[in-house]
Amino acid sequence: MKFSDINKQQQDGQPKQMQQRQPGFESEMNPEPIYDDPEYKGTGKLQDKVVILTGGDSGIGRAVAVAFAKEGAKLSIIYADEHEDAQKTKALVEKYNGECLLIPGDVGEEAFCFSAVKKTVDHFGQLDCLINNAAEQHFQENIEDISLEQFDRTFKTNIYGAFHFIKAAKPHLREGSTIINTVSVVAYEGMPVLMDYSATKGALLALTRSLSENMVSEGIRVNGVAPGPIWTPLIPASFPADKVAEFGTDSPMGRPGQPVELAPAYVHLASEDSSYMSGQVIHINGGKIVNG
Fold this sequence. Notes:
Keywords: Oxidoreductase. By secondary structure, the chain is of the alpha/beta class.
């Protein structure tokens, strides 16, 4: 998809809107995020690779699922309870001749994560790539307003979930396997209204780097992608309506990114194209300079 086409679609921003639950529904967003690039043609970079993708029902996860399907991957998509969104993503994967297994559940629960890995391996016979993408965030202007319940919930989804899936997946990975963690620009620069979320992404960044050093001798590569402001269901599910309307306008490019603009980075990190990369993070944030 051409850069100019996305700019044109985003020039008027997005209307005020909110969703009353987290995670949100892609089907209720206005406009709907762009998740498929009709000009992207797969070349078999992930042919017959089996991938577990958490948070794969919508947003960045859906765009990644579509691109991976085009590249020949078989996908196990983990999601909470957004069944309509998940079914649409499954249909998109199958449209591009990919195989897709849907597994709903709570990534914050260790037993579920181990069960999801077992179901994936039992179904596909192997596991080649783990993408920890599931996340939640909650807008709070004052730290005093962050309840212990919210703090625990955010950490369980964003960092405990990744930790559980890594432990469960590790025995099935081998030389050439990859782990990709969705970090965030806020791990580097913070976010005053997403303090607990930022803390989880900082933890995930440190885990990515440490895990890379731990697994590199086994030929398993661990990298991350750090999105900036991306138009996903998390946005109307997290921010007040007036903040949603201006979301992304403070980026150097003056607009939020679209999920489709991130998908090729995940393909790169999951394929042999990145064979000499580990412990690294790709920054896709609309032009913001991030050191680190």
